[in-house]
Each structure stands twice: as structure tokens, then as C-alpha cells.
């Protein structure tokens, strides 16, 4: 909108400078003539001529002349001259009707109320005079920073000439300056209806609808602008931003794919596609984690095994208690020591019984709130598949973008983050293993994590070569430390030293 405001200032300033060139003495003479005509017209409506249509038409014309004056000292004497002239014209038209037929005065008055166009499509006639009067006063009030006054007059100019895009456009712009969003919206809509296609105006109107939380209207306005300005990239980008803000990432992806198809060498479109797919994949993490947790909680076989293990542990304590009890009976000499051991074992057994009771309670609770394991398993498979697909597309578009522009910081940085995060996930599997599982599968999975972490390294290092940002430094330091720990190697010390 800054561009619009500037054009408005230039437009109004140009008009003001033209008027300023008028001769001062001439202006004073004209002011006297105009005010004398106004005084005479005002006095006539106070007499018996007040019911004559011609009287009101003459009065309207006197006020139009005042409103059309380039001399602000003249227009200030009657600030509402143009608006009053409009009302006087309607009065004149209403008084010259007999038996349902309009007289010549009524017809003349109505010609002022709406601009007519000639065969060449140019405005002309009395309507153009009233239009110019409204615009003149609007300009003067705008220059005086009376935005509400400017809006009142410029919007009336648009009413007199609804086909004019200029008055409609400035109604919208000045409406925003006057903090009158309703008037601004009406002005911008008139602008489009009249055939206007300025991208800035269309963007401004879309933002008004966006602020009103009318997302569908905002999108429709931007799409209309794209139809009128098919080569305008800003409007297309704004549509994508709006779709993302509305949570319609799928639609945004489709739009970006269409743009990329038209400009296959545009690396930014490819990068944006990669980011959208990357973000989409990340959104599945929460759902996948929740389902895994529910499945783990409802793993009845595992729960049964844990319960049996706990019972076996208690049985072992019972056997030890029996052994110590028998020993006390058979060997009175060591009874004191055995009794102490017995007391300790009994306490440990009772503690384990309490644990068993808690486990039984949890098992009963899980049984009462049992979920459909088959359905959850199916959901998990579908979500995991979708996430893998989105991650695949993300990697594909990151690489395509880098193939076109290998020195793009964002593409290199994001590609590095992509592989680093994948490495963290793989390492997380190792970290959650018990010793038995680790001995069986841990080493292979750990090696997979190392390989994935290493894939992020060239992208992070390239990004660091392009731009040395603090966040990136932290990522590089974290990467080197993780690899140093996993590989148990000092090979990364020099790299860490270089970051200091």
C-alpha cells in the first residue's frame, strides 16, 4: 500500500500545483463573483420562488462553481458546497414533475447527477462538472489532512461517475487513511466493478477481507486479481501465503506446482515446495507418537509378560523366605543373623507385591479403556506412509532447487536440518532400546544414524560458507559433537575448534 499512497500524493500534488499557478488577483475577483452569486441564490429560496425548480437548480449551479474553485480560501467559506449542490439538484428534479412527467429543469438537474459519456467513451456534460467539483474539494481536504472530508467528497464523485476508476480507487485509499474500512472496501469494490485491475488495489481489498476474517472473500479477491494480472508474481505469492494461513497447505502446494511448471528454472518455487512438504511431514509426528503410545499401553501380551515376570520375582522372594525360615529352625546358632536377613527379604517381597498390585490396577484400567488395536495399527501405517511420501517429496524438491542454485543459503540450511532431524529420529530408536535389543539390532541402527547425520554435514558446511549465522553455528557444533560421540573419534575436534 505504500506505492498507492505515494501515487495518491503525486496525483493530488499535481492538481494542487496547477491551481497554485492561477493569478492571485484573478482568484480574488472570481471569489467575489462566486460569493455574490451564492448570496443571491440563497436569498431567492427564502422568497416566494422557493418552490420553483429553477430556483434550486440555479442555487445548485452556484454552489458547484464554488466547489470547483482552485482557491481554497473560496471553498473554505462553504466547505460542503459540492454536497449541498448535490442535494439542491435532487430538490430541483423533484419539484419539476407534473402528472408523472419531468420538465426541462428536472431533466437538466438529473444530467448533473450522473456523468454521461460520448461516442468516444469520454465523460462530458453537466455530470462531469459536479464530478470535478467533488474531486476538487476532495483534493483540497486531502492536502489539508482532513481525510474524512476528503473521503466524503471523493466517494460522492464516484457516485456521480460510477464508471470512473480514479474516484473509486481514491475512495478506497483515502478511506483507509480515514480509518474507515467499510468505505475503503466499497471504494475498492467499485474500482474493480468499473474495470480497474491495479494489483496494489486488489491486494489492499484482499487484506481488508482478511482482517475481517472473511478468508473465502479474501482468496476470491486475490484470484480475481490473478485473472486480471496473470503475470503478477506478488498476487500469486500472496494467494499461497493466504492458503497456508488458512491451513490449506494442499491447495498451496498445487498452486506452487502450477507456478513451477510455468517457470521450471525458478529455484525459489522449488524451495518453497520442499519447505511445504517438509512442514507437512513434520505435522504427522504428533499423531504418530500418540498412536504408538496408545498401542504400547494396550500391548496386552507385553503386559501379561511383565505381570508374570513380577509374579516370578515375588515367588523367588517367597522361596528365599522359606529357605531362611527353615534355616532358623535347623540352625539356632545363626538364628539371629538369619532373622535379620529374613526381615529384609520379607520387606523386599512386600514391596514387590505392592508393585504387582499397582500393575494389576493399571492392567484393569487399560482393559476397561481398551482401544481397537487393529484400527490404530492401520492408522499408524497410513500416517507413516504419508509422512514418508512427504519427506521424499521434500528431499526431491530441495535437491532440485539446489541443482539450479547451489549457493542458496536457505536451501542448503534446510537440507542440512532435514537430514539432521532424520538422524535424531534414528538415534532415538537406539537410545530407547534395552540391552538385549541393543545387542541384537543396536549397532546396525546406530550405523544408520551416523550415515544420516553425515548426509547433513555438506549442506550445513556449504550454508556456513555462504553465511555465518549463529543458529547454523549451533547446528554444526551439535552435529560434530554427536558424530564424535557415536564414532568415538577425535576427527571432529579440528572442525569444532574452527567454530570457536
Automatic annotation (TrEMBL):
Residues 300-327 form a coiled coil. TPR repeats lie at residues 199-232. The keyword Repeat applies. Pfam families: TPR_17, TPR_8. The keyword Oxidoreductase does not apply. Keywords: Coiled coil, Repeat, Signal, TPR repeat. It comes from the Bacteria. Residues 1-22 form the signal peptide. InterPro entries: O-mannosyl-transferase_TMTC, TPR-like_helical_dom_sf, TPR_rpt. This is Uncharacterized protein.
